[in-house]
Design brief:
7% of the residues lie in helices and 45% in strands. A hairpin with a 5-residue loop joins strand 3 and strand 4. The chain has 143 residues and is mainly beta. It contains one helix and seven strands; from the N terminus they run E-E-E-E-H-E-E-E. It has a single domain, classed as OB fold (Dihydrolipoamide Acetyltransferase, E2P).
Length: 143
């Protein structure tokens, strides 16, 4: 028997994108940035961002598309999907020529952690004191 699970907390890099399968099932995709900050051996603070591409299905896809907005913080619980060609993350080249990667997740659960966006209504619960991920300009988001 095999089993895998991944849980991430991060911020949406851009608005969710929803489509429907030929059979009429909703599918929503969005990118999530997760920051890691640490001090290296030279005493310098280093900040790294890992990108995850999240896919949700059915009613959850419709809810995510309706209520999630760029910058909001989410917790995603799901399973990792490897690139069929490499068995690892999706590799891409940024506009500045540097290499990057993103990891694909099929979500089982998406929890909204950010407070409501001003002027918006919906089931987005207030969040705790989690640090906001620093988002790059939209044209530098890998997907």
């Amino acid at each position: 028997m095999s089993y895998q699970k991944i849980i991430i907390i991060g911020n949406l890099g851009r608005e969710p994108e929803m489509r429907y399968t030929p059979s009429g099932q909703a599918v929503t995709s969005f990118s999530v940035a997760v920051n890691e900050t640490y001090t290296n051996a030279n005493g310098e603070k280093v900040k790294k961002t890992i990108w995850f591409r999240v896919t949700t299905w059915g009613k959850q896809a419709e809810t995510c598309n309706q209520y999630l907005k760029k910058g909001q913080q989410v917790l995603v619980d799901g399973r990792m999907n490897a690139d069929p060609a490499t068995g690892g993350p999706k590799i891409f080249t940024r506009q500045d020529g540097t290499a990057g990667s993103s990891f694909e997740i099929t979500a089982q659960t998406v929890r909204f952690l950010s407070s409501r966006v001003e002027g918006e209504s919906g089931p987005i619960a207030g969040g705790g004191g989690m640090e906001m991920a620093e988002l790059p300009p939209e044209d530098e988001i890998p997907f």
